[in-house]
Amino acid sequence: MTTISKDADRTTFINVFTVDPANQSRLVDLLINVSDTYVRQAPGFISASLHRSLDGTKVTMYSQWRSLADYEAMRRDPRPVPYLQEALTIAKFEPGIYEVVESFAPAAREEGTPPT
Amino acid sequence: MTTISKDADRTTFINVFTVDPANQSRLVDLLINVSDTYVRQAPGFISASLHRSLDGTKVTMYSQWRSLADYEAMRRDPRPVPYLQEALTIAKFEPGIYEVVESFAPAAREEGTPPT
Questions:
Q1: SS3 of residue B95 by DSSP
Q2: Alpha-carbon distance B96 to A51, whole Å?
Q3: What is the torsion angle, in degrees rounded to the nearest 10, for the CA atoms of residue A38, residue B99, residue A115 and residue B43?
Q4: Closest to A99 (Cβ–Cβ): which among B2, B52, B96?
Q5: Which residue would you say has higher pLDDT here, A7 or A59?
Q6: What pLDDT is stored for residue B109 in this prediction?
Q7: Which B residues 57-116 touch A at CB under 8 Å?
Q8: Contact present, A53 and A13 (Cβ < 8 Å)
Q9: Which residue, of A95, B12, B50, B61, is most buried by count of CB atoms within 10 Å of its CB?
Q10: B18-41: average pLDDT
Q11: Residue B1, pLDDT score
Q12: Contact call for A97 and B32, based on CB within 8 A
């Protein structure tokens, strides 16, 4: 489970892979494999959640790290590299490094009714 | 706060806006305003978190809805439209509709230590 909060001191990565729908399952399997085997073992790793687009054309990894330096250290590890190279033979990769600005909860819709 | 879990029955939207860094703050303000004023009042809205990329070129909204139909009903509401039209004068919009495939927690790094 991943928790998003603007008050947490962490660096967020939203990495979008664009893929032919015929290859979406293969890309998902590759990213599960590399995350389970290497990424989640790396120092400073906090959490990641993998997303599959309903139209088949995207796979997006939402991940949180203690710092950008921790993420970069993981990317210098040679062991996950073959997985990522294989991913890039079937997908285009658009990385993004973020901070959380704000979170929104549902508004109470009727006076006197507490938000659910 | 937003919680990501593969077991939750919901639809996830990861909408990436690409923007000139000079306009990133204005885009963030616009999206905060429309989310606070309209989006979080919509039926079926569960949660959203707004992200600002550290390089200034992206703003990404991660949002969760009870269903795609609830999201589409909100998008048919004419009241938020002017905010989104103004956003599109300064940003490129790349939407994505997802389900969560898997979440990853940090691995225990020492033998004999159970995963947390």
A1: coil
A2: 10
A3: 160
A4: B52
A5: A59
A6: 59
A7: 58, 60, 62, 68, 94, 96-107, 109
A8: no
A9: B12
A10: 97
A11: 82
A12: no
pLDDT > 70 fraction of chain B, expressed in percent and rounded:
93
* Lookup result for tokens 């879990």: B5
Taking the C-alpha atoms of residue B87 and residue B50, their distance in angstroms, rounded to an integer, is: 14
Report the distance separating Cα A59 and Cα A37, nearest Å. Answer: 19
Report the chain B residue with the minimal C-alpha distance to residue A51.
Answer: B100
Amino acid (one-letter) located at B75:
R
pTM confidence score: 0.91
Does an H or E element contain A51, and which?
A: strand A45-53
Where residue B111 falls among pLDDT bands split at 50, 70, 90? very low
Q: Contacts of residue B98 in chain A, CB cutoff 8 Å?
A: 51-54, 58, 60
Which pLDDT score is estimated for B86?
Answer: 96
What average pLDDT does this structure show over A49-74?
Answer: 97
Residue A12: what residue type? T
Token pair of A107 as six digits:
């508004």
